[in-house]
Amino acid sequence: MKKLTLLFAGLVLALSPVFAQSRENILKVYNWADYIDEDLIGEFEQWYEQQTGKPVKIVYQLFDINEVMLSKIERGHEDFDVVCPSDYIIERMLRADMLLPIDKNFPDSINWMGNLSPYIVEQFNKVDGYGKNANDYAVGYMWGTTGYLYNTKYVKEEDVATWNALARPEFKGKIFVKDAFRDVYSPILIYLKQDELKSGAVTLDSLMYDSSDASILLVEEYLKSVRDNIAGWEADFGKEQMTKEKAWLNFTWSGDAAWAMEEAAAVGVSLDYRVPDEGSNVWFDGWVIPKYAKNVEAARYFIDFMCKPENAIRNMEAIGYVSAVGGPEVLASQINGESYEPLDASYFFGEGAESVCVNPVLYPDYSIIRRCAMMHDSGDRTDLLLGMWSRVKGDNASATTYIILLLAVVSLVSALVVVRQNKNKRKSRKGRR
User: Fold this and answer.
1) Could you give the CA distance from residue 303 to residue 287 in angstroms, rounded to a whole number?
2) Tens of pLDDT, residues 238-250
3) Domains of the chain, with CATH numbers?
4) Residue 4, pLDDT above cutoff 70
5) Mean pLDDT over residues 201-210, rounded?
6) CA separation for the pair 125, 119 (Å, rounded)
7) Which of 27, 132, 383, 412 is the one with CA 20 to 30 A from 92?
């Protein structure tokens, strides 16, 4: 309800003639759903006026697919000031000259962009922006890995030490896979190219660019060989299926895994997360300023405000994902010697974090990060990857999938009935108010 209220308020502001005449007092933010501590929005408005003497109101809008967000900006019909795309979309936007450089010069007392983890800065340096350094045009927000969320009652840790867990017959009908072709293609390609990786014929980083016909076919054949085991392809419901023990294995993101593990523990279900030994991808989301932005000054202040350590911590607590901000304040907030064994998080927090007790789902040990790499935009090969993904999923309408779809339809119909009944009740009460 809070999210809906915030979105509605943003749309009202966007349509208001008063604010339409004062665009310099509006900051239009376009972000993923459930991806911020919403209290920070009002706090930023107050803070910005204190710092600059200028009022600002945030119009906050949501998207759930990178490509939908990108299409709006590509057409130039939406003058968003701050947007939060994923790594490969940042890469695509840089190549298409769709971003403005971010001025990071702030007074020392409020200059927080320097709090970004050196690991995040290093990864953004690898973004292939056709000569443009992504760190000049983007600021990291959240990051994570892709791996297996699994039920420890039915699945042993050694079972998920390999991506080939998808092929195990005992898990048939109990596996859900994230409906995100890039996040599935890259880890499976890493698994299938183990011989080349071990021999040095290819590197992990170079493999993240590989969308050749041969590699696409290789991944497609493997996924088709295991799809009878897969109960469904999920965009968001996999973690809930895991907490209810309707699934035992979920090919998913670390942030979803962390959320599910906490929810499951509250109802006595034991879940854990593992990045298979072959390696995986790491993903990143970051703040950018599109070239159609109308309030660049407020946009860069907003990005800086999100890099403040206490705000980064609050965002992590609110959404369950891992901030790109490092530093001693964030590290101190994450240490819990009673719950976690020591691991090496020096890649993220720097010297002194070689043995710290932090959540291994959120901050994997350095030994795991060494075998992970960032995905890249596949450019004009994207349609071929999408075609492969469609073919893999197309024939896999399993009984479980049909049941889930049927339940979803029943729930929707029930909700519509309730809404109609409530409307009728409201009409009948209208005269008594």
Assistant:
1) 7
2) 999 999 999 999 9
3) 2-136+287-325 (3.40.190.10), 143-279+371-395 (3.40.190.10)
4) no
5) 96
6) 10
7) 27
